[in-house]
Design goal:
The complex is a heterodimer of chains A (247) and B (377).
Chain A (H helix, E strand, L loop, with lengths): L10 E10 L6 E11 L4 E5 L6 H8 L7 E6 L2 E5 L2 E2 L4 H8 E4 L11 H11 L4 H14 L15 H13 L5 E5 L7 H17 L3 E5 L11 E6 L2 E2 L3 E2 L11
Parallel strand pairs in A: 3-9, 3-10, 7-8, 8-9
Antiparallel strand pairs in A: 1-2, 1-4, 4-5, 5-6, 10-11, 10-12
Helix pairs in contact in A: 3-4, 3-5, 4-5
Chain B lengths: L2 H8 L1 H37 L5 E5 L12 E2 L2 H7 L3 E16 L2 E10 L12 E2 L8 E5 L9 E4 L2 E9 L10 E5 H11 L2 H9 L3 H4 L1 E2 L1 E6 L5 H9 L4 E5 H12 L1 H31 L2 H9 L4 H30 L11 H28 L9
Parallel strand pairs in B: 4-9, 6-8
Antiparallel strand pairs in B: 1-11, 1-12, 2-10, 3-4, 3-11, 5-8, 6-9, 7-8
Helix pairs in contact in B: 1-11, 2-8, 2-9, 2-11, 9-11, 9-12, 11-12
The chains are: A alpha/beta (247), B alpha+beta (377).
The structure holds adenosine-5'-triphosphate and magnesium ion.
Chain lengths: 247, 377
């Protein structure tokens, strides 16, 4: 699949490097990685353990500094020559980025609805509107019937869908997922991936997911292969996204 | 949506259990403070009871409580004649063990002249002593009731009145009897050899000694001037009420006071450390959740608010439980526990400050959490 002709990338990473430590203990986790992700794209980060997948995801998520390089998110240059261009990265995260974790990381003391509503509340939405939107999202992700359940009472798949609802609550354009299906069986993993794909298309979002899960490789538009912190040439996935029904 | 409250509600049982534990600990601290205050108050009670201005005691002593003092029985008449003295009374003090219902009662026997200063401050039940012999006013803490008959020395006394909270600095309940009865009792209980000598020698005159003479002054009289006059009699010295109270609280119960004071401070420090640990652990248990909150964009103030609110809730509930507990059981203590509202308030403020400081520790840890830790496994 090729980049949509008349769209600009949601995520543009230009020669981003990251090393940990100095001298003897220096680890080059990322070496001059460049990649673009467009709206409606679902891409995978693939690579052996220690190849820098999580590091890259954390930099895109604005929770880890880069050593050098430039990054644009949704048309805004947020990182230039390894320096953050914005003081308030938290706000950026709240508005533009949704995170999905390997383990759902729901707050155990809030029920499903409030786990979703809490991010809306943080963005300044009043409580009743936040709960209403949370309920809609849960319905959309087909866990509406579990909306008053506490996380401990949810099955793995249900919890992961609630977590996805939370990641989507503020309608972020960029969704980052670190092994989102690792805790799920293959059937549920496919359901979650199809859901993400549907979201990418409906919400004009870009989704970057780290995965080891070969069962779902066919669900990605692009697979970026990391090796020792370096990116191999991108290869189109088996599945052509043009065949995916849109909307 | 209050995250602190929701988190507490989620783990309500555990939270309440922690509150109860903290409450018990703070209850013990409050009890210690009450015991400390009670000790000081008790020590002053007997000296304050007669409501007088000056104590006339044996020369070169700080009697009659801190040191033994004996003055001749006729001192009272001489003192009463000093200009500025409104009234004076002779008084004796002795500790006696009396048999009562098959047990030994330790009593602090005060002999006084019912028509003169030196008697109990207030009768809580019954009446004052009306007859010259064998009537007694006892303190409730002795556990006796009106009409009880108690043997002191060779005579049996009837309890005609009861007082409240009248104990000596050792906590022994006070009983009041008439001066002649008390002098007889002193004589009866003296060592046999001394008794024989007294009986053979000076006779009644030698028996007529008292421990102190207490005097109430006229409204405008100077205690110092009266004391000066008394000191001119070489065998006497005079102590003003203020000095007497200082002697009692500084020397008589000083060691006990410092002992309990030190222990109370230690207990306070221990409580502070425990509160700090509880709150710190409470935060540590939540680090992953805090990382998640940070990652989804919660501002620091949300996280700080959550920790501080929980710390304060814990401190407040624990303190309320502890205070309620002690207020309800303080009268069951064998000695007086005095809890003034200001003591409770001060401890409350200390607990508040400790909770804030402890949540500072938790907050520091929480703010250092890397939001990236929420991402990994
Ligand atoms: N905070 C850190 N300090 C030092 N080295 C780090 C740190 N984080 C990651 N690294 C190193 O950077 C390299 C890339 O790590 P990263 O976590 O990105 O790998 P990964 O591809 O996510 O691996 P995995 O598949 O095991 O999750 C590794 O060699 C790792 O040891
Ligand atoms: Mg990783």
């Amino acid at each position: 699949m090729a980049e949509p002709a008349n769209a600009s990338p949601l995520v543009r990473i230009d020669r981003v490097s990251k090393h940990f430590g100095e001298g003897e203990t220096r680890v080059d986790a990322l070496r001059e990685v460049s990649l673009d992700v467009y709206p409606r794209q679902v891409v995978a980060l693939l690579g052996p353990s220690g190849s820098g997948k999580t590091t890259l995801l954390n930099i895109v998520g604005c929770i880890l500094d880069a050593s050098s390089g430039t990054m644009d998110l949704d048309g805004e240059t947020v990182l230039r020559d390894g320096r953050w261009q914005r003081g308030d990265l938290r706000r950026l995260r709240l508005e533009k980025i949704g995170f999905i974790f390997q383990f759902h990381n729901l707050l155990p003391f809030l029920d499903a609805t409030d786990n979703v509503a809490v991010v809306l509340k943080l963005a300044g939405v009043d409580m009743s509107a936040a709960r209403k939107r949370a309920a809609e999202l849960l319905d959309y992700l087909e866990v509406g019937h579990r909306r008053t359940a506490m996380p401990a009472k949810l099955s793995g798949g249900e919890a992961q869908r609630v977590a996805i609802a939370r990641a989507l609550a503020n309608r972020p354009r960029i969704i980052l997922a670190d092994e989102p299906t690792a805790a799920l069986d293959s059937k549920r993993a496919r359901i979650v991936m199809d859901l993400l794909r549907k979201l990418a298309i409906e919400q004009e979002a870009a989704i970057i997911a780290v995965t080891h899960d070969e069962k779902i490789f066919d669900r990605f538009d692009h697979i970026f292969q990391l090796r020792d912190g370096r990116l191999d040439e991108p290869s189109a996935a088996a599945d052509d996204p043009a065949e995916v029904p849109s909307g | 949506m209050n995250l602190a409250y929701r988190d507490i509600r989620h783990k309500l049982g555990r939270f309440l259990l922690t509150c109860v534990g903290l409450g018990l600990l703070l209850g013990v601290v409050l009890a210690m403070i009450g015991i400390y205050r009670g000790l000081v108050v008790d020590a002053l009670t007997i000296a304050r009871a007669p409501g007088i201005d000056i104590w006339i005691v044996e020369a070169n002593t700080r009697g009659p409580f801190a040191e033994a003092s004996r003055v001749p029985g006729d001192t009272r008449e001489a003192v009463a004649r000093i200009a500025g003295v409104a009234a004076a009374g002779s008084i004796t003090y002795q500790t006696v063990e009396a048999p009562y219902r098959g047990e030994k009662l330790r009593l602090y026997v005060i002999g006084y002249e019912p028509t003169r200063p030196g008697g109990p401050p207030e009768i809580a039940a019954g009446r004052s002593i009306a007859r010259n012999h064998y009537e007694m006013i006892a303190d409730r803490s002795a556990g006796v009731s009106l009409g009880d008959r108690i043997q002191l020395g060779r005579n049996t006394f009837t309890v005609v009145g009861l007082t409240q909270h009248q104990v000596n600095s050792g906590g022994d309940p006070a009983v009041y009897i008439t001066l002649p009865d008390a002098q007889k009792l002193q004589f009866d209980l003296a060592p046999p050899a001394a008794r024989v000598q007294t009986a053979r020698g000076a006779g009644a005159a030698a028996r007529d000694t008292v421990n102190a003479v207490v005097a109430r002054l006229q409204p405008n009289a100077s205690a110092e001037a009266v004391a000066e006059t008394v000191r001119r009699w070489k065998h006497l010295s005079a102590i003003t009420q203020g000095e007497q109270e200082t002697i009692l609280s500084r020397s008589l119960v000083d060691r006990a006071r410092r002992q309990i004071g030190l222990f109370t401070s230690l207990l306070l420090i221990v409580s502070a450390v425990i509160i700090a640990l509880i709150i710190y652990t409470m935060t540590m248990d939540k680090l992953k959740q805090i990382a998640t909150l940070k990652l989804i964009g919660a501002p620091d103030r949300t996280i700080v608010g959550m920790i501080v609110q929980q710390a304060l809730a814990l401190g407040f509930i624990g303190f309320a439980l502890g205070a309620t507990l002690i207020v309800n059981i303080k009268d069951w203590f064998p000695r007086r526990v005095v809890l003034e509202p200001d003591n409770v308030l001060v401890l409350g403020l200390i607990v508040f400050a400790v909770c804030l400081a402890a949540s500072g520790l938790g907050v520091r840890a929480a703010l250092k959490v890397d939001p990236a830790t929420a991402l990994g496994g």
